[in-house]
Design goal:
- Belongs to the aldehyde dehydrogenase family.
- Homotetramer.
- Part of the sulfo-TAL (or sulfo-SFT) pathway, a D-sulfoquinovose degradation pathway that produces sulfolactate (SL). Catalyzes the oxidation of 3-sulfolactaldehyde (SLA) to sulfolactate (SL).
- Pfam families: Aldedh.
- By secondary structure, the protein is α/β, with parallel strands linked by helices.
- It has 2 domains: about 1-250 and about 455-475, Aldehyde Dehydrogenase, Chain A, domain 1 (3-Layer(aba) Sandwich); about 255-435, Aldehyde Dehydrogenase, Chain A, domain 2.
- It has 15 helices and 22 strands.
- The chain has helices at about 40-55, 60-80, 80-90, 95-115, 155-165, 180-190, 205-215, 230-240, 265-275, 295-305, 325-345, 375, 395-400, 415-425, 465, and strands at about 1-5, 5-10, 10-15, 20-25, 30-35, 120-125, 130-140, 140-145, 170-175, 200, 220-225, 245-250, 255, 285-290, 345-350, 365, 385-390, 405, 410, 430-435, 450, 470-475.
- The strands form 6 sheets. A 7-stranded mixed β-sheet has the order 15-16-17-14-13-19-20, sandwiched between helices. A 5-stranded parallel β-sheet has the order 10-9-8-11-12, with helices on both faces.
- Helix 9 (about 265-275) packs across helix 10 (about 295-305).
- The longest helix has 20 residues, at about 95-115.
- The chain is globular.
Length: about 500
């Protein structure tokens, strides 16, 4: 039985508790191995190791730190297929998606390595003679990373790579469902030669290790991706401790399909957004806001194409939709479907748990959904999409913005004026024109408005703001005491 261990101070080690939990392949229910269930003493060891390592790492020139990230990127390229297959086995997404996710980590490694030479500050004119003024970035210290199971290496790369290149040490608590992918990533950091203690992996539950990370005085910031409920609790507690938080907490994303849209292209985007990763994406297309004039035509195409999707083990190259993560997810998704029926939404296809081994839910489409229904407001995190009819772009934008989340949105239209109106008025952090709601690239900021987050962003240069503090520096070479503001009066 494979054991997925902690990695603390450069050593793979068992948890202080001696306890492990099973790791299950969602495609067939088979046990893949056991993951460590750590406790606070394990976290304390990791913090001490990180503190010691970071005191040295912060003094390493950023371009030299970046060289390690280039090595990480090269190693990820070499291990891409191996990691992708591991990821599919424990998470369930189809193998092409898993390869794409590993590629995202590769891209992030090379991008953030480039930031080793681009951690720009500002130089500004001083109001006084013979005085120089500038701002520089400095690391926060120790970054606590809490990541989900649906993108077990991509999201970890979004967080750990910018943290490292800006001079921080990392303590990472991955999801208990996907420890093999986490271990594979950390082994690459290890092989790249990063100093011991700089990257620490502590497996365990959110209620034990996650909460301990938030409470620990040695951890300067928490970067969290997960549910809104948990993110709010983290923010409340960390705020009381004056601790920095970066939160990405899901979405209720919509595609708008106008009456001039290319319907085949729109259906392609909806299928990929709604049923890719079995709907288990924070950017999943959960709503389709469609103009009444083309609603029937869109539904006909969507139902036909949905019926053609092959469902099964993601390691089968011909499969389009894999399993959901576990039994709890199956039951939650089905409860939402039953709620939709009770609310009066009309079920076009799907709506059932599929028989056999593994955790499979049939791709599901509702229509005649009103914007205030539960299935149109709450994040389902499964292969369920709701069709909402509207009479105009203006109404579509109101419906899009009526939810508490604001991560991603898309619009299909051939009218450039409508496209620019949507770009301006859709209240989401990401907007796609003639594409679905998923497909973010690593060199632009990732995150959203309202209940999706707290204003920070993963990816792109904006990610550097999460892991650095600003320091203002004044150099007076006048040879005398000059008092700002006062001397100018």
């Amino acid at each position: 039985m494979e054991k997925y261990l902690n990695y603390i101070d450069g050593e793979w080690c068992e948890p202080s508790t001696g306890k492990f939990a099973p790791v299950v392949n969602p495609a067939n229910g088979k046990t893949l191995g056991e993951v460590a269930q750590s406790a606070e003493p394990d976290l304390d060891r990791a913090v001490q190791a990180a503190k010691s390592a970071q005191s040295v790492w912060r003094l390493v020139p950023a371009p030299e730190r970046a060289n390690y990230l280039y090595k990480v990127g090269e190693l990820l390229k070499q291990r891409k297929e191996q990691i992708a297959r591991t990821l599919t086995s424990e998470m369930g997404k189809v193998i092409d998606e898993a390869r794409g996710e590993v590629q995202e980590a590769i891209d992030m490694a090379f991008y953030m390595a480039g930031e080793g030479r681009r951690q720009f500050g500002d130089t500004v004119p001083s109001e006084l003679q013979n005085k120089f003024a500038m701002s520089i970035r400095v690391p926060v210290g120790i970054a606590g990373l809490i990541t989900p199971w649906n993108f077990p290496i991509a999201i970890a790369s979004w967080k750990s790579l910018p943290a490292l290149v800006t001079g921080n040490a990392v303590i990472w608590k991955p999801a208990t469902e996907t420890p093999a992918t986490a271990c594979a990533f950390v082994k690459i950091y290890e092989e790249a030669g990063l100093p011991k203690g700089l990257v620490n992996l502590v497996h365990g539950s959110g209620s034990v290790i996650g909460e301990a990370m938030v409470e620990h005085p040695g951890i300067g910031l928490i970067s969290f991706t997960g549910s809104n409920e948990v993110g709010r609790k983290i923010n409340e507690r960390a705020g009381g401790l004056l601790k920095r938080t970066s939160l990405e907490m899901g979405g209720k994303n919509a595609v708008i399909v106008m009456d001039d849209a290319d319907l085949d292209l729109a259906v392609d985007g909806i299928l990929w957004g709604a049923f890719g990763t079995s709907g288990q994406r924070c950017t999943a297309t959960s709503r389709v806001i469609v103009h009444k004039k083309i609603k029937d035509a869109l539904e006909e195409k969507l139902i036909r194409r949905t019926a053609e999707l092959k469902i099964g083990d993601g390691l089968d190259e011909t499969v389009a939709v894999g399993p959901v993560i576990n039994t709890e997810a199956l039951n939650r998704i089905h409860q939402y479907v039953e709620t939709g029926k009770k609310e009066g939404a009309r079920l076009l296809t799907g709506g059932r748990i599929l028989p056999g081994k593994g955790y499979y839910y049939a791709p599901t489409v509702f229509t005649d959904v009103s914007p205030e229904m539960v299935i149109a407001q709450e994040e389902i995190f499964g292969p369920v999409v709701s069709i909402i009819p509207v009479a105009s772009l203006e109404e579509a934008i109101v419906v899009n913005n009526s939810v508490t989340f604001g991560l991603s949105s898309g619009i299909f239209t051939k009218d450039v004026n409508k496209a620019f109106q949507a770009m301006r008025d859709l209240d989401t952090g990401i907007v796609y024109i003639n594409a679905g709601t998923t497909g973010a690239e690593i060199h632009l900021p990732f995150g959203g408005t309202k209940g999706t987050g707290n204003g920070h962003r993963d990816s792109g240069p904006a990610a550097l703001d999460v892991y650095t503090e600003w320091k203002a520096v004044y150099v007076d070479f006048s040879g005398k005491l000059q008092r700002a503001q006062i001397d100018n009066n």
